[in-house]
Automatic annotation (TrEMBL):
HAMAP family: Undec_diphosphatase. It comes from the Bacteria. It comes from Chryseomicrobium palamuruense. This is Undecaprenyl-diphosphatase. Bacitracin is thought to be involved in the inhibition of peptidoglycan synthesis by sequestering undecaprenyl diphosphate, thereby reducing the pool of lipid carrier available.
Length: 268
C-alpha cells in the first residue's frame, strides 16, 4: 500500500508539473501549493525529480517546435557560411535567444537556491500568482507588429530579465516572458515562439548543472511514470496554450491566477 501511495504521489506531481510548465500559471508555484494542500511533499534533496520533469517538458517543447528549430539551425549555418540574405533574420533570432538566456542563467546559477528558499511559502506564491494574473490582464488584447526578423538586442535583454524574475515561485516563466515580449510589441506568434525556444537553453543549462545529482535508486519506477506523465501533459498543455493564444483568450489565465492567488491568501 505504501508503494502505491508513493507511486501515485509522483504521478500526480509529474502530471501537475507537466501541465503547468508551459502555461502561464507557474509550475513551481503550483507544486508548492499542492505539497501544502495534499501533503505531496518531496524530499528536500530530490534533484532527480526536478531534472527529469524539466527534461520531460524540454522534450515536449522540442517536439512541438522541431520544424522551427531545424529551420533556425539550417538557415543560421547557411548565413555563417555563405552570408545568405534569407538566413540573416534566423541567425539574429538565435543570437537574441542566447542573449536572453544570460540574465536568468547568471542569476539562477548564483541565487536560485536563495530565491527558492526565501519565496517558498504558499502565501508568497499566492501574491506572485496575483502579480502574474494582473500582468496577463494588461497584455491580453495586444496584437503587436514585430515579427521574428524585427527583434533587437534590447528586446532580448528585457525578455531575458523577465525570465529571471520567473525564478520566484508563483511567477510563471512562460507568462513573464510572453508579457514582456508582447509589451515590447511582438506579435502573439512571435512572442510565443521566442518564449518557448528560450526555454530550451535555460532548461539544458539546468540539466547540465544538476545532472551530477541524478540518482534513480529504488524510485526508478515512480520517476519513470512521473517523467512519462510530465511529458504527455506538457505536450498537451503547450498545444492547448497555443490555441488559447491564437484565439486571444488570455483572460482565462488572468482569472485563474487571481482566483487561486486571492483564494490562497484568504483561506490558505
Amino acid at each position: 500500500m505504501e508503494e502505491f501511495v508513493i507511486l501515485l504521489k509522483y504521478i500526480l506531481l509529474g502530471a501537475l508539473q507537466g501541465f503547468t510548465e508551459p502555461i502561464p500559471i507557474s509550475s513551481s508555484g503550483h507544486l508548492i501549493i499542492a505539497q501544502e494542500l495534499f501533503g505531496l511533499e518531496m524530499r528536500a534533496d530530490d534533484f532527480t525529480f526536478e531534472i527529469l520533469m524539466n527534461f520531460a517538458s524540454l522534450l515536449a517543447v522540442l517536439l512541438i517546435y522541431r520544424k522551427d528549430l531545424i529551420r533556425l539551425v539550417m538557415n543560421s549555418l547557411s548565413y555563417i557560411q555563405h552570408r545568405t540574405v534569407e538566413g540573416k533574420s534566423d541567425f539574429q533570432f538565435v543570437i537574441y535567444l542566447l542573449i536572453a538566456t544570460i540574465p536568468a542563467g547568471i542569476i539562477g546559477l548564483l541565487f536560485e537556491d536563495v530565491i527558492a528558499e526565501f519565496f517558498k511559502s504558499s502565501k508568497t506564491v499566492a501574491v506572485a500568482l496575483i502579480v502574474t494574473g494582473i500582468a496577463l490582464f494588461f497584455i491580453r488584447n495586444l496584437k503587436g507588429r514585430k515579427n521574428d526578423g524585427d527583434l533587437t538586442w534590447k528586446d532580448a535583454v528585457i525578455v531575458g530579465f523577465a525570465q529571471a524574475i520567473a525564478l520566484i515561485p508563483g511567477i510563471s516563466r512562460s507568462g513573464a516572458t510572453i508579457v514582456a515580449a508582447m509589451g515590447l510589441g511582438m506579435k502573439q506568434e512571435t512572442a510565443l515562439r521566442f518564449s518557448f525556444l528560450l526555454f530550451i537553453p535555460i532548461s539544458l543549462g539546468l540539466i547540465l548543472v544538476k545532472i551530477p545529482d541524478l540518482a534513480l535508486g529504488d524510485l526508478w519506477l515512480p520517476y519513470l511514470l512521473a517523467f512519462l506523465f510530465s511529458f504527455g501533459f506538457s505536450y498537451f498543455a503547450l498545444k492547448w496554450f497555443m490555441n488559447i493564444m491564437a484565439r486571444g483568450n488570455l483572460i482565462y489565465f488572468t482569472i485563474y491566477c487571481l482566483v487561486v492567488g486571492f483564494g490562497f491568501l484568504i483561506f490558505g
